[in-house]
Amino acid sequence: MTSYVIRGAKILGGEPTDIAIEDGVITGIGADLSGGEEIDATGLVALPGLVDLHTHVREPGREDAETVLTGSQAAARGGFTCVHAMANTEPVADTAGVVEQVWRLGREGGYCDVQPVGAVTAGLKGTQLAELGAMADSAAGVKVFSDDGKCVSDAVLMRRALEYVKAFDGVIAQHAQEPRLTEGAQMNEGPLSGELGLVGWPAVAEEAIIARDVLLAEHVGSRLHVCHLSTRGSVEIIRWAKSRGIDVTAEVTPHHLLLSDDLVRSYDPIYKVNPPLRSNDDVEAVRDGLADGTIDIVATDHAPHPMEDKECEWAAAAFGMLGLETALSVVQQTMVDTGRLTWEQVAEKMSTKPAEIGRVSNQGRPIAVGEPANIVLVDPAAQRTIDARDTASLSRNNPYDGLTLPGEVVATFLRGRPTVRDRALVTPLVKEAVTA
Ligand code: DOR
Ligand code: ZN
Ligand code: ZN
């Protein structure tokens, strides 16, 4: 296996130093290292490989929109070395068989570790629990369970799921959306939904479920993770829950950090997403929540959809946006360049903590001697104009098309192998053996 010396990288934005990699492991950090192929990292920031807790790959079932391989390639281009693949596939990832298939496809692809998320309820139907234990015991070692796309709205089922996963240190990741309050909902409820004549999606539909679930998690002494927080009230509830010592974590998406509901004026379904883009005040609140630690992590909710499901009238369009290839740039723009987060904190919120929440022990590790060489090199001074066609994804539903965003991934290393080099995907890859 090739050895590398990364020269002059600023680890977590610190002073430039060299990083030596051998056999997939970081073997040296310091000045003037030698003994491998040279990678010039002058001016680049080195972060631990990013970990996404919330990715939709569409395999099995909708391989026209995304496969495990293309999703992994998009992830690598975004600086990720691990993604959690949501369960809303066809068939649903609600058995050991399906999660093992997804896990194995990820390892075979070799661009990124793909950690399957198991469904909470059979077929995402919300009526009976899926085989949580069997998925946890499978080769995929599932720790995160979610009906994402749908809310586990039945309080009894939610309670049982929270209780059940305690046995294997699992976590329930809730898509907080009260179904009755969001029937037919199309966009954030507010003056604008009235003006545009689109059915409103009230903040309370999200907040009511989060309030219920933090209390349930407290009651049964279990671990809860809340997906894609999007409102000021949600941030306040999580802040309150944490102050009470409730074991809850929360995520925000890049799009909820940058975009707001004014964009819906265009009636362009590229901006249609679940939960919906919210008000500017909500955007401010989620930025503050991420900065002060109330919101633990950034997760992409990368949701590929084929053109025909997005290029149609608003009401008929699918919910969801791509996110893997732009996440770090959006976080740089909204949080780093505004002085709200340091690179060290970005590493925490996009690598260390998501790995911790997902209990992925070999990812989200520090850049230190003896650790697996999962590293992303970022050029924070780069400016790139986003082009939706320039993607590894099979889909093109990129809401940032035409925007200029800061930062660019120059290289990504997965266990010492470059998956991205010189700002481009490495293809074909030199594969590593798949072992369980
Ligand atoms: O916008 C979304 N798209 N939100 C979800 O919860 C599901 C996702 C999807 O699967 O497309
Ligand atoms: Zn969701
Ligand atoms: Zn999702």
UniProtKB/TrEMBL annotation:
<keyword id="KW-0479">Metal-binding</keyword>
<comment type="similarity">
    <text>Belongs to the metallo-dependent hydrolases superfamily. DHOase family. Class I DHOase subfamily.</text>
</comment>
<feature type="binding site">
    <location>
        <begin position="56"/>
        <end position="58"/>
    </location>
    <ligand>
        <name>substrate</name>
    </ligand>
</feature>
<dbReference type="InterPro" id="IPR050138">
    <property type="entry name" value="DHOase/Allantoinase_Hydrolase"/>
</dbReference>
<dbReference type="Pfam" id="PF12890">
    <property type="entry name" value="DHOase"/>
</dbReference>
<feature type="binding site">
    <location>
        <position position="301"/>
    </location>
    <ligand>
        <name>Zn(2+) 1</name>
    </ligand>
</feature>
<keyword id="KW-0862">Zinc</keyword>
<feature type="binding site">
    <location>
        <position position="88"/>
    </location>
    <ligand>
        <name>substrate</name>
    </ligand>
</feature>
<feature type="binding site">
    <location>
        <position position="175"/>
    </location>
    <ligand>
        <name>Zn(2+) 2</name>
    </ligand>
</feature>
<feature type="binding site">
    <location>
        <position position="228"/>
    </location>
    <ligand>
        <name>Zn(2+) 2</name>
    </ligand>
</feature>
<feature type="binding site">
    <location>
        <position position="56"/>
    </location>
    <ligand>
        <name>Zn(2+) 1</name>
    </ligand>
</feature>
<dbReference type="GO" id="GO:0004151">
    <property type="term" value="F:dihydroorotase activity"/>
</dbReference>
<feature type="binding site">
    <location>
        <position position="274"/>
    </location>
    <ligand>
        <name>substrate</name>
    </ligand>
</feature>
<keyword id="KW-0665">Pyrimidine biosynthesis</keyword>
<dbReference type="InterPro" id="IPR011059">
    <property type="entry name" value="Metal-dep_hydrolase_composite"/>
</dbReference>
<feature type="domain" description="Dihydroorotase catalytic">
    <location>
        <begin position="45"/>
        <end position="232"/>
    </location>
</feature>
<comment type="function">
    <text>Catalyzes the reversible cyclization of carbamoyl aspartate to dihydroorotate.</text>
</comment>
<comment type="pathway">
    <text>Pyrimidine metabolism; UMP biosynthesis via de novo pathway; (S)-dihydroorotate from bicarbonate: step 3/3.</text>
</comment>
<dbReference type="InterPro" id="IPR032466">
    <property type="entry name" value="Metal_Hydrolase"/>
</dbReference>
<protein>
    <recommendedName>
        <fullName>Dihydroorotase</fullName>
        <ecNumber>3.5.2.3</ecNumber>
    </recommendedName>
</protein>
<dbReference type="InterPro" id="IPR004722">
    <property type="entry name" value="DHOase"/>
</dbReference>
<feature type="binding site">
    <location>
        <position position="148"/>
    </location>
    <ligand>
        <name>Zn(2+) 1</name>
    </ligand>
</feature>
<dbReference type="InterPro" id="IPR002195">
    <property type="entry name" value="Dihydroorotase_CS"/>
</dbReference>
<keyword id="KW-0378">Hydrolase</keyword>
<dbReference type="InterPro" id="IPR024403">
    <property type="entry name" value="DHOase_cat"/>
</dbReference>
<feature type="binding site">
    <location>
        <position position="148"/>
    </location>
    <ligand>
        <name>Zn(2+) 2</name>
    </ligand>
</feature>
<feature type="binding site">
    <location>
        <begin position="319"/>
        <end position="320"/>
    </location>
    <ligand>
        <name>substrate</name>
    </ligand>
</feature>
<feature type="binding site">
    <location>
        <position position="305"/>
    </location>
    <ligand>
        <name>substrate</name>
    </ligand>
</feature>
<feature type="active site">
    <location>
        <position position="301"/>
    </location>
</feature>
<feature type="binding site">
    <location>
        <position position="54"/>
    </location>
    <ligand>
        <name>Zn(2+) 1</name>
    </ligand>
</feature>
